[in-house]
Amino acid sequence: MHKPSEPFIAVENIYTHRQRYVLLVASLLGLAGLMVVGLAQYLTAFLAAGILFVVFRPWWVALVHKRRWNRRLVTILLLLVTVVVLVIPFYALSSLLLDRLIQFAQNPEQILEVVHKVERAIGFKIAEQFNVRQVLLQGGAKVSGWLPTLASSALNFLVIVGLMLFTMYYMFMQETYFLLGLHRYLPFRNETLKELGESLKNNVNANVLGQVVVALVQSILTGLTLWIFGVPDALFWGVVAFFMAFLPVLGTPLVWGPAALYQFSQGHNGQAIGILLVGFVVIINVDNLLRIVLAKRMGDIHPLVTLVGLVLGVEIFGLIGLVVGPLLVSYFLVLMEVFRRENRATNKAAAGEV
Questions:
Q1: Among its keywords, does the record have Transmembrane helix (predicted)?
Q2: What are the phi and psi torsion angles at 248 (to 5°)?
């Protein structure tokens, strides 16, 4: 025989409806915070997957939604493009940069020799040997912090790349559910979500596609200029110029300026003047022209937003912060505008009731 179940005893809950609601939101935020902390070292993988989803989505829409290609086939093709065009070249360039910085930091004699020649040319001492070595070590550590996946073990790098590709695969394969989930769970109206989406698209276009094009062109021009005018390791300094080109205002002058100074220190005044002429007349003007053209075509982002975002993003997220930083600043500005608009609407409604 079944034992009769004990009668349910109703117990009065000590929380009000509003308190339960607040505690529910706090619990969700707390759990989300724990998840973010637990996945902190792999956060770049998910951020990169989201950025690449935005970059490749026009191709996805054209091939899957318009031409009716197989969804899985297109997804695999996009993943292969990511590995061949982005992951492998980025790993090779970054490894070259890190290896050379470590080599300079461990054996700074070449740089010290140039510094001493410049000191003799200008007539006063610039830096002690200890200071130069410290600057090189600090620079290597800083760049290693920006590229944590390359500075750590190969296994960690593979895990991050694997997570990024795995996340991209499901974002594309379950595109409809992913986009509906954003609309359902993000606490914004459709108009605000549209503004945030437009801001994301503009930032990705301007700070990924546009910046990569500008950096690549400047890198090639800088490398060719240094090679033509006889600067040693022109290929390496061209790679450095690619990364420096992401910095607004300063950029590649941080590369070809010291290269001209090096040629002056070696007594090659004509070559040094040639580097400066090409730098000021060609490289800087090409940079400005490309940025103006690409800003209009790929997303009109204010330079101040980019500058503040770069400083913020790189410090927090590493190299991926080149995109995430400006995006955070843009989102802050968009949400401030939404807040202003909502307050104005509320005030008008209150004035109408009165």
A1: yes
A2: -70, 155
